[in-house]
Amino acid sequence: MTDSAGPLTTVTLLEMHRPPERYPPIPMGPHQLALLRCRDMPLHFYRYIYDRVGRDWHWTAALFLDDEQLARRLKAPDREFHVLYMDGAPAGFFELHRFDRKECRLLLFGLMPHAIGRGLSRWFLGCAIRAAWEGGPRVVSVETCTLDHPAALPLYQKMGFVPVRRSETYGMPISDEKRAEVLLHR
Question: What predicted TM-score, i.e. pTM, was given to this entire model?
Fold first, then answer.
């Protein structure tokens, strides 16, 4: 069903209240993998990786930030960025937002199209979850919607996240920046 504002989109907030007992092992296969924390993300690289990971899933919010706005986001002390490389080339990334000692949000997570379907998702999400639990938050959360990859919600649940709230909206869900701002004040 759609209206003039776009398709009906279901947004699901999921939470995890304790770290998993085990994390998926690194995939065995023909690819050389490296996961690196990016401590000083260049604007052009963030825009590139954000676009390549999110293009098929309607990620647009960060693409409309001007250089100053994006620089503030990338340099914020409560943000953390990790980039996955496969055979020496970028293959995905995740972004954490540490609201405070109480909550760490897996704000963005995804693989580039050339890395999807290669058995990396569970391991890569496990790496994101492990990084999110560093610093000892009481809860790790993530939000997904029906515009994301169809396997996103089931994968989050397989990895231990539990849905705590669903909402519906017409068109695109609010931007990840606005969503974080709203959730800070819930």
Answer: 0.85
